[in-house]
Design brief:
The complex is a heterodimer of chains A (444) and B (305). Chain A has 444 residues and is an alpha/beta fold. Chain A has 20 helices and eight strands. The longest helix of chain A has 26 residues. In chain A, 44% of the residues are buried. The chains are: A alpha/beta (444), B alpha/beta (305). The interface between A and B is large, with 58 and 52 residues.
Chain lengths: 444, 305
């Protein structure tokens, strides 16, 4: 009953595409399900109604054209409408003609502003820019310290005024500092506030007028419910938002609140936060998100992440080794590390069509299991890693002790490695005989 | 200011529009328009479709509810029935432990500061354990709250094992004869298997070191969270047997109606509500007042009962 929108749509799609002919009643039944799924996904009540009405109009028209696959037609319409709802193609941050570029982050308490500020700083730094973070949350205990810690992790300076009480003065001070110090981007982390708190909303508006940011971004929680719309409308009204950043998308929240905010305010989502790690910020892709909602997976994001995480030379070297069946435990460990560099496993799984939902119901992936495998390999000597056949009973005991695992764990790893190697060998032999042009599985 | 006044004040804004709409709907004998309107009100309060349908079914089955006043009364009874009676914190006999859980940004640390203040005001001695060793400056934040409300904090360095912090805090509690230990944990999305395992470990340490002590495992929910709150409650409950909820940030315009669904499905009571950032902005939950807040108040009928 509480499945995700993704799996709900998957069921609807199966039912629709399983039949050749659709009647108007079929479409109505499907759209009722769509509406329920949207509401369960926290799409705003009114937005869901409008969405379903639009889809119905389009779907009935499509049926009249007597398409060969009416089910696909309806799904296509729902998909297109979702993309439309999520907004056009994403854009990058605007850069000011004359530096510094000023970015103001706003949002409710606990939306994730400070973490997002750090992630943005890291992202900008990776692209050759020099950001300066500014702590203007002078109310919440240790908020300034939090930004300092995050700034240090992102390798970015943090502007702080000791004992300051006026957030606007601090922001101004930071901009002057950036001009003097040659920082080209200033990221202002504001205090969390309720959108119905007139006083604090007025203060934020005054901040906007005082510093004239090039981007005013609302940070919003992917888990937000029905009230997200009135929240975002109020922030938009007071600040004239330029974009949204969605946080905590690595949970199982269905994100309907975000969908609704985009629809009602017309403000695009620029980035999505997808892990607790500082590199967990990705450009937002409406088309991919719509596909994800429809259960089509998010293969493009996965490939992009793989490309960022994997170094080309290492990949080429690995391919050579695989072909020659020289694959050792060292290589195996390296592979493991690269996979882990791509981000939390369950968020990777979710991007693979059909796998995410299934993995969820199987209880997710235990990240620690990978850590154990790595520890076992780490506890071997260099020679053992090259020639695992050397590993006898007493060595196994030592490795298990050294890695804090059991002998069974070590045995299992060696057995799996052996099987993998045998498989690789068979494949390369097949290739030599010219039966296949390519390895049957991707190397990256 | 009573809890009811506080909630009333904090939610006055949204209630006005709902009042007008329900009032309008109730002018006619209960027909499809009325039920549609009721569905809209409940869904927009984040109650969720399944629980909304359950409520409407129950209401339809009430043969006595045929005129507007009787319907309002029946509706109140049904909603209050989903919560049951108010359930106070179970902290006696001392020593007792309150383990505070939740996703990132729900409002755990602030709720703990306020709870410590409240328990101190009741005359209990309180100790805090800074077991959120992950988030930047979480320990500092708790220490500042500790200073503010006059309570000591047991802490390790950032990155330390949270279970070890809890172990030390329990020993300190025993040595000093403290009444209540409140444990702050790192925010975690309920989908992260390994982080949920970490919570179980913390819970085991408490059970082992204080086998007969009352332990409250309170899940903090952000009132602005939608249907995902149900999933959060389910997963946290599976992991550590949650004993109750803290509904935080009820001073916004969101109503946190997902707690009705959680009450119906998991039987978890809301024990405290948070309505601001001041130390005294945390109150025991009263089902009756909350129902008044969720439902439009109609003078002379709903509000004054």
């Amino acid at each position: 009953m509480f499945e995700s929108l993704q799996s709900r749509f998957a069921t609807i799609i199966r039912n629709l595409t399983g039949r050749g002919v659709l009647s108007e009643a079929d479409v109505d039944a499907a759209l009722r399900e769509v509406r329920l799924a949207l509401l369960e996904a926290d799409v705003n009540f009114k937005v869901a109604k409008a969405f379903v009405d639009r889809v119905r109009a389009a779907a009935v028209g499509a049926l009249i054209t007597k398409s060969l696959a009416p089910g696909h037609e309806v799904v296509k319409i729902v998909h297109e409408e979702l993309i439309r709802l999520l907004g056009g193609p994403t854009r990058e941050l605007r850069i000011a003609d004359r530096p510094p570029t000023i970015i103001l982050l706003a949002g409710l308490h606990g939306a994730g502003k400070t973490t997002t500020a750090g992630k943005l700083a890291l992202r900008l730094r990776k692209r050759g820019r020099q950001p300066l973070l500014v702590a203007t949350d002078l109310k919440r205990p240790a908020a300034v310290t939090q930004l300092q810690v995050v700034g240090a992790q992102a390798g970015t300076p943090v502007y702080v005024q000791e004992g300051a009480t006026d957030p606007i003065a601090v922001a101004r001070g930071a901009i002057d500092e950036a001009r003097r110090g040659g920082q080209d981007t200033v990221i202002i982390d504001s205090a969390g506030r309720q959108h119905i708190d007139e006083e604090l909303m007025a203060e934020l508006r005054a901040m906007r007028e005082a510093v004239q940011p090039h981007e005013v971004l609302l940070v919003m929680d992917a888990m937000a419910g029905q009230d997200a719309v009135s929240m975002a409308e109020r922030f938009h009204q007071m600040l004239a938002l330029d974009g949204l950043i969605v946080t905590k998308l690595d949970g199982d929240a269905r994100g309907g609140g975000v969908l609704s905010v985009v629809e009602v305010t017309g403000v695009p989502v620029l980035f999505a936060g997808t892990s607790e790690k500082l590199d967990g910020l990705e450009p937002f892709h409406p088309d991919r998100m719509a596909s994800r909602i429809l259960g089509m997976g998010d293969v493009l994001t996965l490939i992009e992440r793989a490309q960022e995480g994997v170094d080309d030379q290492a990949a080429a070297e690995l391919e050579r080794k695989l072909r020659k069946a020289e694959f050792t435990l060292d290589d195996f460990r390296q592979q493991l590390r690269q996979v882990r560099k791509m981000g939390p496993l369950d968020s990777l799984m979710e991007m693979i069509p059909g796998l995410g939902v299934r993995m969820k119901s199987a209880g997710g992936v235990d990240e620690r299991q990978l850590g154990r495998v790595e520890a076992i390999i780490d506890s071997m000597t260099a020679q053992e890693r090259r020639q695992p056949q050397l590993i006898d009973g007493s060595r196994r005991r030592r490795i298990a002790r050294g890695s804090g695992t059991s002998i069974q764990d070590v045995n299992r790893l060696l057995r799996q490695f052996d099987e993998a190697k045998r498989m690789i060998k068979q494949v390369s032999e097949l290739e030599k005989k010219g039966k296949r042009g390519k390895l049957p599985f991707p190397l990256q | 200011m009573s809890v009811f006044d506080r909630l009333r004040a904090s939610l006055a804004r949204t209630r006005e529009t709902f009042t007008a709409r329900i009032e309008q709907a109730l002018r006619q004998p209960p027909g499809p328009e009325f039920y549609e309107e009721l569905e809209a009100v409940l869904v927009q309060g984040d109650v969720g479709i399944p629980t909304t349908e359950h409520i409407i079914e129950q209401l339809r089955a009430r043969r006595d509810a045929r005129d507007p006043a009787a319907i309002r009364t029946a509706l109140r009874e049904i909603l209050q029935g989903l919560f049951g009676e108010a359930v106070p914190l179970h902290l006696d006999p001392a020593p007792a432990v309150v383990l505070v859980l939740g996703v990132n940004g729900a409002g755990k640390t602030t709720s703990i500061g306020k709870l410590a203040y409240r328990l101190r005001a009741e005359g209990r001695s309180v100790l805090l354990a800074a077991a959120d060793t992950f988030r930047a400056a979480a320990i500092d934040q708790l220490v500042i709250w500790g200073n503010r409300v006059g309570v000591e904090v047991v802490k390790h360095a950032p990155g330390a094992d949270p279970a070890a912090v809890v172990y030390d805090a329990v020993q300190a509690m025993k040595a000093r004869g403290i009444d209540v230990l409140i444990v702050d944990t790192a925010g975690r999305l309920h989908t992260k298997v390994n982080l949920m395992e970490e919570l179980k470990k913390i819970s085991r340490v408490i059970a082992r070191e204080l086998p007969s002590a009352p332990v409250e495992r309170l899940l903090v929910l952000d009132a602005s969270t939608g249907q995902n709150a149900i999933q959060q409650a389910r997963r946290f409950h599976e992991a550590v047997d949650v004993t109750g909820l803290i509904l935080a940030k009820l001073d916004g315009s969101a109503k946190g109606g997902a707690v009705l669904a959680i009450g119906r499905e998991l039987g978890l009571p809301v024990k405290l509500v948070g309505t601001g950032e001041e130390p005294d902005d945390l109150q025991p939950f009263e089902p009756r007042s909350y129902v008044d807040v969720l439902l439009p108040e109609i003078p002379g009928v709903v509000g004054d009962q």
